[in-house]
Amino acid sequence: MGVLMQVEFFNTFVLNNFKSHDGQNGDRSSGDLKFITRCSTGGSRQRPAWTDGIDIDEFGVDRGKRWYIEESRIRGGFNNTSIDQGVRAYINEENIFQEKRINTLIYSGVYNSRTGVNNTNVFSIADDITKSLDISYGSIQKTYAEETNLIVFQENKIHRALIDKDTIYTTESGTQTQAGAAVIGQFVAYKGDYGISKNPESFAIYNYRKYFSDKNRNAIMRLSNDGLTEISRYGMQDYFRDRLSEINNNFENNNITATKFSGGVSGDISVSIIDFSQDISVGMSIEGQPGYITYCEKVGSPPLESWNILYSETFTSNLPSNIVILYKTRGKIIGGWDIHNKNYVVSLQKNPNQVSTDDTTYKTLSFDEDINGWVSFFTYKPNFTFSNLNKFYSIQNYKLYEHYHKNVADDTRGDFYGVRKPSNITFVFNAQPSITKNFNTVFYEGSNGWEVESFNSGFTGQDPNPDTVTGGYVQSNDSIISIKSYDEGSYVDANTGYTLRAGFDRKENRYVANLRNNSAAASGEVLFGAQMSGIKGYFATVKIETDETTQLGGPKELWSAGTNYVVSSY
After folding, report:
1. In what order do the strands lie in the sheet with 67-71?
2. What is the pLDDT of residue 157?
3. Whole-prediction pTM value?
4. Please, what sign has the CA dihedral across residues 143, 134, 110, 179?
5. Of 210-214, 294-298, 496-500, where does mean pLDDT reach its minimum?
6. Which residues of the chain does CATH 2.40.10 include?
């Protein structure tokens, strides 16, 4: 309901939304918005009739409520146009509500740095400045401007639209473009029912190729000049089907238990986390305290690891010795372009770093366009990855790391975020797959410093579980313990004084080792001597990795690997 009042020269409207005694907004009797007139010419002030329990200022305005000021003349100018009596849309709006349009784009006025025109904060309702897509394809998750096109990624569909021009369809079934009045032209869908789901963080681009994930369809996608391609099908379809289904896009409540050992009420404290696999990050909050963490830094390493924390608010009281840090997380699919190796790198994270940095919570791998396939797994779990100029970077817990950095004095190969892990390669020996073999030796050509972490045959049978408590059946196969590298496996014989090798031995830069079976003998298997040698099976899976002592952090090359075998005698 509008309010009619006499307005004098240079008057100012002070509008305030009062809270009445019955808990309703507006006047105690009518429920309308209360207008208070303050006259610069000495006119009287109108005050509300009730003031008990309300902090009222000298103008009758409740200090605890938001209030607004509006001049009667445009910009408050001396001879500027004054408002007239009557209904005004910007003054009187009976139904104030917010509309959330998840499938709609809106654009503002132009910005021109040459003329100084900046209308980026202007959204004129007189112009048609919105473009909507089909709501059945879900919400808009990401937009990307490519030259004169705008690519729009919905959860279940991808469209492109022309910018500042329209498409004209000719009678010869062709298309032409012409300048149009609309900023965003007609939307044209890419062929294929693919979207970006709710993982815009998986998007990466290099030249005209765009990469992203579609969790809803268990796919990793590439968008290029030839349209959409499901690159997860290149030898990894089953893998991505299983891994992507494990990622939950819904936010979940989590907490970290920590022990405070220094700090007061100022918001600057030091804590120690009980579970070292978890990390603290900006945005988390302390249970029972308003505000959030604005800065945090890890100090030391387990078991003397601690965190220095800055908080946005002063603590209401001294914190107890044991505190709980609260946060919300969801699964993420983080993508980035590796300019160094020309690879698309994607990290599938069931839980982010704050929940756990354990190897079981993530898988990071890369796709190479040169071979059209997935080439490598990595042992780092980033929060964000990107390339700048000719270097590849990642961010982990708000710290920036440069990858492929070479320091002659302190080589850091295999060192990610201060943690060194061995590099490894897994391959399969499967010559003559229909013949049962006895693998006797393993050899490789390359650098010193490789060791065999595991050598397992395929399953050779299914037998009842000897553990009567567990019950059921178990698969049996042959395996070894491990084979040490050339340096780590060397020892001096106490009798002869010669240096012998318990692992790989070397001849003409070829490293060779015997395979000693560590499995229990199967029923009916013939044993010769005190030890059983060789790995029996149709095929064998081998994992070879760098050791912990040989030129630590230096380059390791592996050119080829092989095995000697004979046909099994049973």
Report:
1. 34-38, 12-16, 67-71
2. 95
3. 0.72
4. positive
5. 496-500
6. 252-329
